[in-house]
Specification:
By secondary structure, the chain is α/β, with parallel strands linked by helices. The protein has two domains: 4-275, Rossmann fold, CATH 3.40.50; 280-382, no CATH class. The protein has 15 helices and twelve strands. It has helices at 7-13, 25-34, 63-67, 73-85, 132-140, 148-163, 175-186, 188-191, 208-211, 214-219, 276-291, 294-308, 316-336, 339-368, 376-382; strands at 4-5, 52-53, 93-102, 107-117, 120-125, 167-173, 195-201, 223-228, 243-246, 263-264, 267-268, 270-271. A nine-stranded mixed sheet has the order 2-3-4-5-6-7-8-9-12, with helices on both faces. It has a three-stranded antiparallel sheet with strand order 1-10-11. Helix 1 (7-13) packs parallel to helix 4 (73-85). The longest helix is centred in the last third of the chain and has 30 residues, at 339-368. The protein starts with a strand and ends in a 31-residue tail after the last helix. Residues 376-385 have a biased composition (Low complexity). Pfam families: Mbeg1-like.
Length: 413
């Protein structure tokens, strides 16, 4: 039986040159992770079409800028060092890097292109970073399509596709997976058969009405989606394709960390299905969405965002570090809102908690019956009803995507 590994172990022993025939979903996650690196400040040539090789990124003086904004700087550094010395990755070219944050437009977008050979490129979209703007844009997906990052992703992929005749793989982790699907759908006519595969690693989904669009239906059979067994982010909104469930060494929402995903041989170690916890979260989100129309979702999300966007607080780290001293300011802002808005916020947040409690009660009752009964917790640990290979259940509300702007790439089929 092959030894179980993580991303770093995989890169340290995967020596075969990267090509279409040898490309795996694990390689996709490695390159998706690489798009998180903040290289442009120290390596401006990464923004050009010529780009730089991974071994040229091994500049110790630039490491603080590369890694400090990342969720796991130490393991990120170890992975880059492994890539820069690996015969599988060290000669890959990273090019066309872009990194944009626009607080006014509520957009956080970054992407990179990797030249895998003369006739093959991988386009990676970065997931949500630590900025509050990035998180706000994620929640905007519950009532709007496309959001600015999805439009930026569509434009980026169109430029790459227009500048090369190579075959194209597209992917991303977290929001990057969502952007990969959105960009591929928007450009499916331009790409045609050159679009080989679209990888979404624990990426959020879409409003149901978006998935019914012809351009999304056209690429569904080329989407490869993976989520960890207790996925939270990947269960956000709807998916139109089955997903593989990957074993993670962490618990709960921390399984979103790609370094926790277990690799077995040349692929991820997959399980039969999601844990009961993930299904509770999925059901709670779906029910909340079903109970609120798009206008209500927008009002709530905008109001909560207004509460936490305090001067000096621009990232989730700032919010976590200063929440105690900012409680008076948040309380003051809440009190200053008109009574109807304040009541709506409090009732909506209470409803989320009530829905979640209602959904978890049957599991708690089962757990009290002992491990020999039909405990939902025991089911989860054993794999339970498999969700793998099924469409992730979503809400049944009559949601409609927002009206795209005049320059939108979506809706062109």
């Amino acid at each position: 039986m092959a030894k179980t590994e993580d991303l770093i172990d995989y890169v340290e022993r995967a020596f075969e040159p990267l090509a279409l025939e040898t490309f795996t979903p694990v390689d996709s996650l490695v390159l998706s992770w690489a798009s998180y690196l903040r290289v442009l400040g120290d390596v401006p040539e990464a923004a050009t079409a010529e780009g730089v090789r991974f071994q040229e990124l091994l500049r110790a003086e630039a490491f603080p800028a590369y890694f400090s904004p990342l969720w796991d700087p130490q393991r990120s550094k170890r992975l880059l060092l492994a890539m820069g010395s690996s015969p599988r990755f060290r000669d890959l070219v990273q090019c066309r890097c872009v990194d944009e944050v626009d607080a006014d437009a509520q957009m956080q977008f970054a992407a990179a292109t990797y030249i895998l050979g003369d006739d093959l490129v991988y386009v990676a979209f970065r997931g949500t970073d630590r900025t509050l703007v990035g998180w706000k844009e994620d929640f905007n997906m519950t009532f709007r399509f496309p959001v600015p990052a999805q439009e930026a992703a569509a434009r980026y992929l169109r430029r790459v596709a227009s500048d090369t005749r190579a075959r194209i793989l597209v992917g991303g982790h977290s929001k990057g997976g969502n952007l990969a699907i959105a960009a591929a759908a928007a450009n499916q006519q331009l790409l045609g058969e050159r679009l080989l595969r679209v990888y979404s690693h624990d990426g959020p989904g879409f409003l149901p009405s978006v998935l019914e669009r012809p351009e999304f239906v056209a690429i569904a059979d080329r989407i490869d989606m993976t989520v960890p067994q207790s996925s939270v982010v990947g269960m956000f909104l709807d998916h139109s394709v089955p997903y593989g469930v990957v074993r993670s060494t962490r618990v709960g929402p921390w399984q979103h960390d790609p370094f926790s995903w277990v690799i077995l041989g040349e692929d991820f170690e997959c399980l039969e299905g999601l844990t009961i916890d993930a299904r509770h979260i999925q059901g709670t989100l779906a029910e909340w969405l079903a109970r609120h129309d798009e206008a209500e979702r927008e009002a709530l999300i905008n109001a909560v965002y207004e509460l936490v966007t305090i001067p000096g607080v621009t990232t989730v780290d700032d919010l976590a570090d200063s929440w105690q001293r900012n409680i008076p300011e948040i309380r003051s802002r809440l009190a200053g809102m008109d009574p109807e808005t304040r009541r709506f916020i409090l009732q909506s947040l209470l409803r989320v908690g009530t829905i979640g409690l209602h959904r978890i009660r049957p599991t708690l009752r089962g757990a009290r019956g002992g491990f020999g009964g039909d405990s939902g917790l025991a089911e989860a640990s054993a794999g339970g009803d498999s969700d793998a290979g099924r469409r992730a259940p979503g809400n049944n509300s009559d949601t409609r995507p927002g009206t795209p702007g005049n320059n939108s790439d979506f809706g062109r089929t």
